[in-house]
User: Which sequence fits this backbone?
């Protein structure tokens, strides 16, 4: 009986430790942040907090981290301009020259962002990119871009801030909690499935 109780306590502590590690570690896993270095281009994908992602890309451009910005994203409403075109407009109004902006307007999801941006990246002989997205989306976007670009092109992760999601408080509201668990589920699915061609 004593052995059983000791075993039960150890098992409970181990499970509690794993849950705690997941609780604390999951948001850091989702939001990898690389050391900022200069690259050939900045790639900003649309999605949640598109304007914040756009402003993050502009900031990197203004600070001299890359001479080119690629905005990627289709229109949510087929009757309106694409997200990429809207992002371009913001960048132009912030003083980024038109010659320093390329747009990819057909992508409806992260996989397509990566595949369609890869064509532009390869056509322009780009060898390194700063990938700009929201923190909770950074890991999945990075996986998709690395798969699309292969080993010859360096992907540097740069997360913007997000007013609805914080690493240290992702469980405090249902929106952030659902977003976190959904992103983790999508990443698991990515690893378990074969890359699409």
Assistant:
């Amino acid at each position: 009986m004593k052995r059983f109780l000791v075993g039960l306590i150890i098992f409970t502590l181990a499970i509690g430790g794993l849950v705690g590690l997941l609780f604390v570690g999951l948001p850091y896993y989702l939001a990898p942040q690389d050391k900022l270095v200069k690259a050939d281009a900045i790639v900003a994908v649309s999605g949640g907090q598109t304007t914040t992602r756009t402003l993050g890309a502009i900031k990197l451009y203004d600070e001299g981290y890359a001479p080119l910005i690629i905005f990627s994203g289709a229109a949510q409403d087929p009757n309106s301009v694409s997200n990429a075109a809207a992002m371009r407009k913001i960048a132009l109004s912030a003083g980024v020259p038109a010659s320093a902006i390329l747009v990819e307007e057909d992508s409806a999801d992260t996989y397509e962002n990566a595949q369609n941006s890869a064509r532009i990246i390869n056509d322009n002989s780009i060898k390194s990119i700063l990938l700009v997205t929201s923190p909770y989306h950074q890991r999945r976007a990075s996986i998709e871009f690395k798969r699309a670009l292969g080993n010859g092109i360096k992907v540097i992760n740069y997360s913007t801030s997000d007013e609805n999601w914080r690493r240290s408080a992702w469980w405090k509201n249902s929106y952030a909690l659902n977003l976190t668990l959904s992103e983790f589920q999508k990443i698991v699915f990515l690893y378990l499935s074969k890359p699409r061609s």
